[in-house]
Design brief:
Chain lengths: 435, 413
């Protein structure tokens, strides 16, 4: 896990649309950013919300605390005590077409067990989203600790990922793009010098990967020690003409009983690539680690080309899950910034039940060279909640599928098919950074 | 030792059928030989590889006749390749390849435009120019997490959609009509004739794998039957909580889908629901309040090979108009190699060969993989399989071949 551990809040399971739970208003709950004097208390509340793994003197705890500043925070306080935490990292990430947009990376969302069902999460989230929009961020995104929680706040499952497991004894590679570069091992002194260059290449090559700050790198290297029977992390970089275009960090676990066939697992914790050659070279390396017969990776893009490199695709087990959820904060700005696969024009009626003033009717005119999206009074071709528009924004899902689940309504015949042709991308979005 | 391909007739059908099952590691029940003969097998489409020394069958193969729905809704004749085995005693003697060649030649002569198959192993058929054209999901869900936040049936909807149980005789009468509507509207689906329905619904003890007999339920809207489910219950030990195993669930409307899954996820005494081969774009994932509880495992489903490339390309419709030159390279089929101009006007294609330079270059297998719209070309480009030569050609290829819905083949053969 990266900067902060994922969002945790035990959501209310409902059988129909989410309803605000019954509650007694507690007048003493106050929502605001924490003050410098409350820094430590805020950090402790976050830590408690995620199960309390680290004591305050732990390096990771200290590092997290340093990353968390008052301006990015929104907390809930009951009589001065921290009872709810949240925050947003000022990310930048690419949208289809290659433009880099600001993106509020929501994290550290907790509500104290003592203050359940009092609207703390709802109130906190509303203020956090407004605060982030005021900073000029058109979208917010998050990793959900549980998939039941965030739909009600207008988030949609935008970037799916796959858990993959490969039996390398049977997974021969029979298709490779040309690989002009080379892989080399790097140690913990060299890695921080070359990995950021590869990361930046990946930010520009894929939709959805946030740029990362120095502390985010520090955290990654700090937490990647050995333990639980795992080897130390092995780090490799892929370079072409001295330029780093990809890297991987993997750990090994031997499950070997002496006298029996050796076997073991390669946990490819992170595989970052920015072109077909770096992807192919890194995976070729991971599939050829001596003495180890399976490889796992929990953050593969859903359209990874690895299955198409293998002689036997079935040796690769794939389980998709909801990865990163997006939430539009400024529809017109967000839709204007990306490009579209097909030329077209249409009007969306966006229903934002959580923050109604952000909804409304928007006319989008776009194509491969750019787009314009403005508020309009024309009649809407498609009516949909903000979560659905957020879901399809990066091209990772089809509006047609959402419509079949009752998540969008077509007012003009053929407009959903047209929207899907416009919003389609040749590559799925991907976010290998857990935040 | 010489191997000779011979036709399958009533004289050698029993031996042939035993050889097929033997190849898959099974003994065959005598009644099932007759069942295949009566309800499914087309003798003139079957082939036996015979060792001329021992006069024994050492390889089997054949095809069923189907109509495959392609994007746009047209039905094209398809050879459904099945029964493929080569005896362990006769490996590496070309029996398998010569049977495949004969099946393809015979299919082309009959006018089949495509051949398709379900692969027993995923590495076998690429060399015969098949491309993996449809992915599906195997599902598992604990029904206590089956609440919906979204449904195509809005609360003020006046749909009278409802579910009722039917018995096996009623199922035999009602299911085919619903399936037929679904398959005509779904790319990747194939027809089932009356014999095949008998074959599919056969439910004696020996085919149940230790689970219950088949149960059936129907969804009805406004007097129309619009969906069904066939399932088995499996009790595990003394546990009260059984597993509900969905054998087939078909919906014609979104309302039927939502109604059927609301029903399925409401069962008492069920700890787990499993369903194999669900459509890649099934909307249930988008309806659940806690979608992560729906565990999805990706699986290759139908593989196809375009037997007549121009006809196949002209049979489907396309999502974008334009002109794209597709270069095909093939060592196995030198006759189809060359460049094809795909001219799409008003979603329809006309195809002719050209001597111009291609925009994209690929093998017939990879063209087959993207043909139904179930496989996006981007990953194939990244894997070094498709060469997007001209600028913008990948976006063009993607835009043309993509489809609104994912293809699905509910029928296993």
């Amino acid at each position: 896990m990266a900067c902060f551990r994922p969002i945790q809040h035990r959501g209310v399971r409902t059988t129909s649309k989410y309803q605000e739970p019954q509650r007694t208003p507690l007048m003493t709950i106050e929502y605001r950013q924490f003050t410098p004097a409350e820094h430590r208390a805020f950090g402790t509340a976050i830590e408690r919300g995620f199960g309390g793994h680290y004591e305050p003197d732990h390096d990771l705890y200290q590092l997290d605390l340093k990353m968390f500043t008052p301006e990015m925070s929104m907390g809930a306080f009951d009589d001065g005590e921290v009872v709810g935490t949240s925050g947003a990292i000022a990310f930048e990430s690419a949208v289809p077409g290659g433009a880099i947009i600001k993106n509020a990376g929501v994290t550290a969302v907790t509500v104290a067990t003592t203050h359940r069902r009092q609207g703390v999460l709802t109130n906190m989230m509303k203020r956090l989203l407004k605060q982030e929009r005021d900073k000029g961020q058109p979208v917010a995104s998050l990793w959900a600790s549980e998939s039941v929680i965030y739909g009600r706040f207008g988030y949609g499952m935008s970037i799916q990922h796959e858990n993959i497991l490969i039996d390398t004894r049977k997974a021969a590679i029979n298709n490779m793009p040309e690989v002009p570069g080379k892989i080399r091992f790097v140690d913990s002194d060299q890695a921080p010098k070359v990995f950021p260059e590869a990361w930046e290449a990946a930010v520009n090559a894929h939709v959805g990967i946030p740029r990362r700050c120095d502390r985010s790198w520090d955290r990654m290297f700090m937490q990647s020690g050995a333990g639980d029977g795992w080897s130390k992390p092995w780090m490799i970089v892929y370079e072409e003409d001295g330029q780093a275009l990809g890297f991987a960090i993997y750990k090994l676990k031997e499950l070997h009983v002496f006298g029996e066939q050796t076997h073991g697992l390669v946990n490819a914790d992170i595989v970052i690539h920015s072109n077909p050659a770096s992807h192919a070279a890194l995976w070729n390396h991971l599939l050829n680690v001596d003495l180890y017969d399976s490889v796992s990776n929990w953050r593969s893009p859903v359209d990874d080309s690895l299955p198409w490199m293998l002689a036997d695709q079935r040796q690769l087990e794939r389980k998709p899950y909801d990865g990163v959820w997006y939430r539009m904060l400024d529809v017109a700005e967000a839709l204007s910034t990306r490009t579209y696969l097909a030329e077209g024009s249409m009007v969306f009626e966006v229903e934002d039940s959580f923050i109604p003033e952000w909804g409304g009717r928007f006319e989008l005119t776009g194509g491969p060279d750019g787009a314009r999206c403005v508020p309009t009074t024309k009649s809407a071709d498609i009516t949909l909640p903000t979560a659905s528009l957020s879901t399809i924004y990066l091209g990772g899902a089809k509006l047609g599928d959402l419509a079949r689940a009752g998540r969008a309504v077509e007012n003009t015949d053929g407009s959903i098919s047209k929207a899907d042709a416009m919003f389609a991308t040749v590559k799925a979005p991907w976010c290998p950074l857990m935040f | 030792m010489t191997i000779e391909l011979r036709p399958v007739t009533d004289d050698n059908f029993t031996e042939w059928r035993k050889a097929v099952r033997h190849g898959f590691g099974q003994q065959v029940h005598p009644d099932d030989i007759a069942r295949l003969r009566n309800d499914r097998a087309e003798l003139d489409r079957l082939v036996a590889a015979v060792d001329t020394g021992s006069q024994r069958i050492v390889g089997t193969g054949g095809a069923d006749s189907y109509s495959l729905t392609v994007p746009g809704g047209a039905g094209v004749p398809m050879a459904g390749v099945a029964y493929m085995t080569a005896s362990v005693t006769h490996r590496r003697q070309g029996a398998f390849s010569s049977m495949m060649a004969q099946i393809h030649d015979a299919a082309r002569e009959r006018g089949d435009i495509i051949s398709g198959l379900w692969a027993s192993q995923a590495h076998l058929y690429g060399r015969f120019d098949y491309g993996m054209a449809i992915n599906s999901y195997d599902w598992e869900i604990d029904p206590s997490f089956g609440a919906f936040t979204h449904s195509p049936i809005s609360p003020d909807d006046e749909s009278d959609a409802h579910v009722y149980f039917i018995d096996a005789d009623e199922a035999a009468a009602m299911l085919p009509g619903i399936y037929e509507q679904m398959r005509l509207a779904t790319a990747g689906s194939v027809d089932r004739n009356a014999g095949r329905w008998r074959y599919e619904l056969f439910d004696e003890e020996r085919v149940r794998g230790g689970a219950s007999p088949l149960f059936f339920a129907i969804c009805e809207e406004d007097g129309e039957q619009t969906g069904y489910v066939a399932y088995r219950m499996r009790r595990i030990g003394d546990s009260d909580m059984g597993t509900l195993e969905i054998v087939e669930q078909v919906s014609v409307t979104d309302t039927a889908h939502a109604t059927m899954w609301r029903f399925i996820l409401n069962f008492d005494l069920v700890g787990k629901i499993t369903a194999e081969n669900r459509p890649y774009d099934d909307p249930l994932w988008w309806m659940l309040s806690d979608p992560r509880r729906l565990i999805r495992k990706s699986h290759d489903s139908l593989w196809i090979r375009l037997l007549d490339i121009p006809k196949a390309l002209e049979a489907r419709t396309y999502n974008a108009d334009g002109r794209l030159k597709i270069g095909l390279v093939s060592e196995s089929q030198p006759a189809v190699a060359g460049t094809y101009v795909l001219e799409i006007d008003d979603s329809k294609a006309s195809v002719k060969k050209t001597t111009d330079k291609p925009d994209v270059i690929m093998t017939p297998a990879d063209l087959s993989a993207i043909y139904l719209g179930g496989v996006a070309p981007g990953p194939l480009v990244e894997a070094g399989r498709i060469d997007a030569v001209t600028t913008g050609s990948l976006a063009k290829l993607h835009g043309m071949f993509s489809t609104d819905s994912a293809p699905w083949c509910a029928h296993y053969f």
